[in-house]
Automatic annotation (TrEMBL):
The keyword Lyase applies. HAMAP family: OMPdecase_type2 (MF_01215). Keywords: Decarboxylase, Lyase, Pyrimidine biosynthesis. This is Orotidine 5'-phosphate decarboxylase. It holds the Pfam family OMPdecase. It catalyses: orotidine 5'-phosphate + H(+) = UMP + CO2. The lineage of its organism: Bacteria, Bacillati, Actinomycetota, Actinomycetes, Micrococcales. InterPro entries: Aldolase_TIM (IPR013785), OMPdecase_AS (IPR018089), OMPdecase_type-2 (IPR011995), OMPdeCOase_dom (IPR001754), RibuloseP-bd_barrel (IPR011060).
Amino acid sequence: MSVSTFGARLAAAMDAHGPLCVGIDPHASLLADWGLPDDATGVREFALRVMDAVAGHVAAVKPQAAFFERHGSAGVAVLEEVVAAGRETGTLVVVDAKRGDIGSTMGAYADAFLRDGSPLAGDALTVSPYLGFGSFDPAVDLALATGRGLFVLCLTSNKEGHEVQHARTEDGVSVAAMVAARAAAINADATPLGSVGLVVGATVGDAAARAGVDLAHVNGPLLAPGVGAQGAGTAELVQVFGAARRQVLASSSRGVLRAGPEVAALRAAASRASAEAAAALR
């Protein structure tokens, strides 16, 4: 692990390769489309083939932990291999595990996903703030101490998200705006980007404006799922992110993965997606 901050490494990777993160999501349906068994051996072939195709060619990869965990310890071992492959190829790995808890339990999650030497510790971790932003202080502290990063759920595209994210305090401040403000405080004065980013769906339209969230003020990366197969193109990215577009790491999963199983086809799909993201965001 480099001693430089995650925000600095990500900014450099996006400048070098374009602002694209490829999701590694071995859905049962995708395994079937690739002619692979729905077990840990199929997940391993799938995940490592994606890494062969895109490692060193995109800014980051984002393995979704649930699709590995559903196969038990053998699946988790594959996730460890993906993390190791990222380290070996110099490709940033965002482990999408959306952890969130309190006290010593949150400390244990932080230890698993952010501690130097842990086989599950990539470059960043997704976390949930809905037990209170301060509940994952152990993750914030360890991420910053080890040069890693966090992506905090803020404005998600699921239809239930507004029930919590757009709820307002007695002072009229939305939960999403409070989350963004806390991230901005941690990232204050960081250059070129802070290391505590937000997850903001690429298909949420004017949700940031409605929630009173100033995305540009966050001064951290904005992970944007939903690019490509889920419907977000240039117009949607411009609408959602506005002046914060250069902070965006666009995430595409199915839009790239459906091009498989051939490595060359996956690499070409990732290259097209990266160029499209750069045109929209840069």
